[in-house]
Every structure is written in structure tokens, then in C-alpha cells.
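seq:
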Amino acid sequence: MTYPTFNSGDVLTAAEMNAVGLWLVKTQTIGSGVATVAVTGAFSADYDHYKIIIQANSIAAGGPYLSIQMGSTVTGYYWGASTVVYSTAAASNIAVNNGASWNRLGPGNTNGVTGAYDILNPFKNENTIISGTYADPGTAGSAGSGSGFLNDTTSYTAFTVGVTSSTMTGGTIRVYGYRN
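struct:
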């Protein structure tokens, strides 16, 4: 496939616009010293599937993990991931079994944390599926990937990003819709 090339001042054709597959839906700024960030108006009937990219610039001490909670739902979250510690190459598995959120989505530290997650079917009346990767930017940190689902059929428009037992400062949360 040949991707369209856009130049400043170009008038874009319908064919060129229809070839674009990922659309920015929302950007949310992470404040200073916050435990959670609500992202409203993120999901709609416009897209079936989404990509969420979280870049927190700094996480306060305490061994925190990123978490995502859909709407106000506080039960039915399942997640499994494999991780590797950079310095030792030690592998481990982590899981959430009927949790209050997907709360083991990657560890962070004072250097922050970055994660990229695909969220499938959040607006549909179907189970919401999550898969993604994350990286702890500390030299003693770890990286991993995993997937899971939310065991309900609620239609969601919003989600909340948080960190367990800590706070985050600075960064952005970007939500992209995959073209149907």
C-alpha cells in the first residue's frame, strides 16, 4: 500500500482521508501530584477500538503501577502479563483476578512510566478487551506485555488512569480511534 503524503496547504481528497487509519480523539494532561486522571468523552460509536498511550513524566516513590478503570465500574477486571527485569533478566508473571481495575499495567518510578494499550469494544455492549505493553524507564526497572478483559457488557465513554499507592506528575494521556 502506498500511504498518502500530505504537504502544507494541500487540499486532501476523500480517498486520502479515508486511507488514514488512526485518529486522535482526545489528549488529557496529567497534573502535578495526582493519584488519578479522569478522561471523559473518550469512547463513542465513531470507533469500535482505541489505542491509549500514557506517558507520566514522574511517579512518586512507593513501587506504584499504572491502572485503568472503565467508567465507575469497580469489579470484574482480569489481566495477565509477563515481565522481565532489565538488570537481572529475571522473568515473572503478574495477574489481576476480578479486580477493581486493571491495576498492574506497568511499574513506574521518579523517571515516570509509559504504556500503550489497545482497548477493544469499550462503547459496545460487549466485554471490553485490553492488551498492551509498558516500560519502566529506571535502570533497575522492568518491561512487559499483557492482556485481559472487563467481565461486563457496559457501554463506556470515559476511563480513569491512576497509579497504585502513589501520585504522578506531568505527562499526557492520548486516545486514538482505529478507523472502522
